[in-house]
Here is the input.
Amino acid sequence: MPKGIKLLSGNSNQPLAKEIAEHLGETLTNTAVTAFSDGEIMVQINENIRGADTFVIQPTCTPVNHSIMELLLIIDALRRASASRITAVIPYYGYGRQDRKVQPRVPISSKLVANLIETAGTHRVLAMDLHAGQIQGFFDLPVDHLYATPVLLDYIRERYHNGNLVVVSPDAGGVERARAFAKRLGCSLAIIDKRREKANVSQIMNVIGNVQGKDALILDDMIDTAGTTVQAAEVLMDKGAKSVSLACTHAVLSGPAVERLNGSPLNEVIVTNTIPLDSKKEQCSRIVVLSIAKIFAEAIKRIHEESSISSLFV
Here is the structure.
């Protein structure tokens, strides 16, 4: 029988790992994750974890390749130290956007990363808001898929309660997510239709649905360079929206993202702490960070107790 929960973390998001541990009334297992002068990663677990139910909390965010390698080496160390079960807790799954072949002679990178995580010795994966649902099928082991929806809904209900809200899908692919969100809020739905009429001509955005005089909330799973998001916000304002905000789970915010957000008409950028954001939040006052630590803590508890996780979202 497993002798208890052991929580471990690499360096990619230690504040989140500590917060999850606090919700569970646990402390993080003493784990040294360092690098040699040539960049090779060194992992050493400084506590006995033989027979323990172990959870490695490590979003594979920037620096993505480094974070993935830390995760793999911690899992390998746990396997070799006779942990009873190893669960990879991945709040943000890097390479998730490369989930299919969109051009000839390209890899399906998210499948390769899944293979690596599995080969390292993982028994189970716990992730949040995967970019594509089919990534769950890239693993030949149990995958528990969490959603940030409850946390985002609570904040939006409190902040936008005047009945004037419209949820906006930034593209056709996100319609299902936006429709479900709008239904939970009891508000209307709009869709941004992006198309390029001919090669080398700038992309045209059309808005399907009424946003005139409404508080528009763009809903997405992540924001990266913010180019498309800012363009969508400008189009919505041109169509007569009273205000525009964004809600998403993963704030990648790479390249010129913060600069673009600061110059955009966005009122709020509501994100979660799957990816650490301390410095970027200081650079952009519009960013609101919500914690998903409690959801992960409850899911870890339920996995350990062998109880239902799906009932978290009923």
Summary: Residues 51 and 83 are 5 Å apart (CA to CA). The radius of gyration is 21 Å. The first helix runs from residue 14 to 24.
